[in-house]
Amino acid sequence: MLVDVKNDFTTGRLRKHLDTIGTILDAKTIAVITQLEAYKRIRLIEKQIPFIIPGKQMYLPDLLIDLKELGNKPKGLPATMRPATQFLLLYHLQVETLEGINLKGVAEKLGYDAATITRAVHYLHHAGLCTLEGTKEKSLHFKENNRELWGKAEPLMNNPVKKIQYYNGWIDDGNLYKTNDNALAHYSDLNDDAIKYYAVRQGYIHFIEGAYCKKTAPFEGNICIEEWRYNPSLLAQNGFVDPLSLYLCFRNNPDERVQMALEQIKEKFIW
Hints:
Layout: E1 2-5, H1 11-25, E2 30-33, H2 38-46, E3 51-53, E4 57-60, E5 65-69, H3 83-94, H4 103-110, H5 114-126, E6 131-133, E7 139-141, H6 146-153, E8 161-168, E9 177-178, H7 180-187, E10 196-200, H8 204-211, E11 214-215, E12 223-228, H9 243-250, H10 256-269
Helix pairs in contact: 3-5, 4-5, 7-9, 9-10
């Protein structure tokens, strides 16, 4: 018998309901679930709970039918990481380890919703950068040390800068973090720039325009604001953006002095 199931179930409760219905009706029961997050699917398979996701997947252990893809094949992983995925990995590498923490705990630490973190972990798992362990609650496990993990992950990462805008004025705001040439000079022997460069989270640039300074022509002004694809605050160190994000900002810069500065960052901060 097919039993329609909503997505807000727990594995234990679903097992109990299916067993109860099966006993009353004296029939085999199969959960039909419209959508199923990756970690929940793994739990159901581990508990050998039969389920069908219409048009996509089915797992029927009593009939010796293993997990199968139905219809169109699933799309491949994106060529590079999404912002939340990159943020998660940079947090693990620089702020505190996420080893052994369940997905709910990761979401709470990083300030993302559960669905976003599930997608991020799904990418990292299928890219071979982490695995999920445990039965009742899945937790993250990283096989490689930080140096090896960075070596595998760095080609999949993106420049965190979404857009830049120059201004004339003066800013005193604790939500801004020094970046670009200012941060590069902080982390290396490169000379600093007279222009003040700041990184902000998405959307905050509009507040700056209303509260502090006036927008100028492209590449003119005494202040440059970079709007980042993820919030730089949790990764920042002493008012500066984190060194690994900074490395990603400059890694394709052909300037020989910049590349020498990046080598210093690699020696100091990439273990």
